[in-house]
Each structure stands twice: as structure tokens, then as C-alpha cells.
Amino acid sequence: MFPTDAKYTKDHEWIREEDGSYFVGITSFAAEQLGDITYVEVPEVGEDFSITDEVATVESVKAASDIYAPISGSIIEVNDALEDQPELVNENPYTDGWFFKMNASNVEELSALMDANAYESYVQEQDH
Fold first, then answer.
1. Is the torsion defined by CA of 94, 18, 11, 100 positive or negative?
2. Which of 18, 51, 56, 76 ranks highest by number of CB atoms within 10 Å?
């Protein structure tokens, strides 16, 4: 159900390493809970964040929600496609719907995140 090559937070962000940098987005569970996504605000390239800092915002027909940094680091790229196509988050949250890419300043922080199985169990607990 959830990609096994990613790690997950209790706030429903995912993070996936690729060539030494990290893509970040929200999970399919979060996207379903929000409903149709209408707006995404991403951070500026070059900004630095500490783990759990508010980094981005996503708005839907139901609610607005903050996106938090799953690890500490700096933003090296943002997904500009979301400006005109926020629905990509609903359609493909793990591929086209990523929010930003970052460098890690402390890769040890990844060890505190959930793997796909743990996140699936966590979601099932939240759903009840």
C-alpha cells in the first residue's frame, strides 16, 4: 500500500533518498483525508529547516494543513508543477506529487522514522 523505499512521519509526510538527496511529500492517506487538493505552497530553494519545522502548506476543499520537515536540512529543489497542478498530490503523491527535495544535515534523524509496514499499522490505528 505504501512504497517500501520511503520512510514516514506521524504527520503523514514521506521521505525518499535518491542520489544522496531526499524527496518529500505527503502520503496517499493524507491526500485522501484532505480530499481534492486546491493549492500547495512550497518553500524557497536555499532555505534551511530543522526536523519538525513547518516547511510547506497544502490546502484542499476540506482543510489547510502544514507540512513539516521529516529531517533537518536545506531545500535544493521544489516541485514547480504543483503551482498550476496541485491535483498531482492526489493523483500521484509518491511520484509527480512530491513537494520539495532537500539535502540532509543529519541523516541519523531518518532512523526515527517509520518504514512502510510501521506506517501502515499507524494509519490503521488512526483510522479507527
1. negative
2. 56
CATH number at residue 44: 2.40.50.100
Rounded CA-CA distance 76/43 in Å is 10
33-58 residue pLDDT tens: 999 999 999 999 999 999 999 999 99
Total domains in the fold of the chain: 1
Q: Rg (Cα) of the chain, in Å, rounded?
A: 13
The count of other CB atoms within 10 Å of the CB of residue 37 is: 25
Using pLDDT thresholds of 50, 70 and 90, give the confidence band for residue 126.
confident
What residue has cell string 532512523? 111
Strand partners, 116: none
C-alpha 117, offset from chain centre: 17
